[in-house]
Amino acid sequence: ATIVGYDSAGNMSEPWGMEIGNTDTVAPTITQFEISELMFEGDIPYVELTWEATDNCFDFVNIWVNQGSFQKPMVDVIETAAIPFEPPEPWAAFQKSKSWTKTVKWYLEDPAAEEMKAWIAAYDICCNEATSTVSREGFAFDLDVTWEGEGWAGDGGEGIPYGTVVKLTADPTPCWFFDEWQITDRTGYSTSSENPLEYTVTGDASIVAIFEEYYYDLTVSASPSDLIEYVSLDDPSAGKCGEVATATAEEVECYFFEGWYDSEDVLLTDELTYAFTIEEDLDLVAWYTLIQYELSLSASPTNGGIVTGAGTYDCCDEVSITAEATSDCWEFLGWYLDGERELWETEAATDFDLCEDLELVAWFAEKSFTITYVASPSQSGGIAISDNGNIGSIILPTGQASTTRTYPCSYIDELGLIAIFAADSWRFSKWIVEDEGGAVESFLNPLPIVQITSDATITAVFDSIGG
Prior knowledge:
This protein has about 475 residues and is an all-beta fold. It has five domains: about 30-135, Immunoglobulin-like, CATH 2.60.40.10; about 140-215, Immunoglobulin-like (Sandwich), CATH 2.60.40; about 220-290, no CATH class; about 295-365; about 370-465, Immunoglobulin-like. The strands form twelve sheets. Strands 3, 4, 5, 7 and 9 form a five-stranded antiparallel sheet that branches. Strands 14-12-20-17-18 form a five-stranded mixed sheet, with no helix packed on it. A hairpin with a 2-residue loop joins strand 4 (about 40) and strand 5 (about 45-55). The protein is rod-shaped, with a radius of gyration of 66 Å.
């Protein structure tokens, strides 16, 4: 080849020539073309695409990818005639670079796609071309699942494809409950209370299920409430599920222990001591019933007196009882224990504390009167009992000086008398009635009716006829 130079005046230089030997026919060498692990910019997934091409007269490279886009969009005009290479498969994004080595961000539309693929074509200034292809069949990550406490939370795994939704269920053992998931992944640290948990794998992650022990509230009370001092709870574990607690009730005077009941009035036991396994919140009530006693009173004989104070009373209540004779003819003998004929009390009216069932009988005795019948002078006449004015029964026959008779009080309320005598020898003079207190009454009527209220002496006085 020869070259001749000219100046502005048209002067020509001496010709200068050179011989061209071999031209540059060696294509560039692509020494590196690779896809990195999956990364994120915020929530946007991307990979780094790195290349390196060597050539003594490097010009540019063209990059194609089958999805997503590059961080920096293409700004150069592509002359098709100058780019003989086209990817053999559909492509989504293109970038031209004058850098022989570079790392760019490739933003992915779908990291879960079956295959990601990129093509590169490197050129030198002589238009020599070198091409290469790199691909990756998705991303896989490790999920580590563990738990704290007692329970089970499932298995994690290795090589889990990007985008896989893993369902984790926390299953606590008895006496434990699930509290939360503690998640450490590419986004940092977070927690969740959802159970089951649906977790989308987008990177290596560690998930810990937290189980906590149940502790329950236990209380004891008494009914009636003023007996609270007689009940107690021994709960050494402070309500820890699965442990044993013991509720104890004491015997209380005048009360019957019905049993231990729950808050729904369900009988748990009728024993004073109730040992139980803690499995729930529990309000225990010791039920007591105030004991009542029956006081039964009667009179014997039934017509002898009236009794008051019988009934049903609370345990050891103070009660008052009285026994009263139906008339003056009856005398109170005492209170006796029914069926035992044992003297219990001599006072007709008394107060006492009723601390047991009690049956008492008020015994009464009918009063009787002793009457001595006398004829004065002796053998002068006799005495008979009036029967509606007629001689009824002869008490003292004529010729007998005296006699004694005993009558029930109720029988001798009123006594009609008739004097018997021989009219040709005697005439009636008077009646003399003297009671036990020394009181004396005199009746001139030969047929009197006298009131008798105590022992007495009745004398019929006769006068002799003719001296």
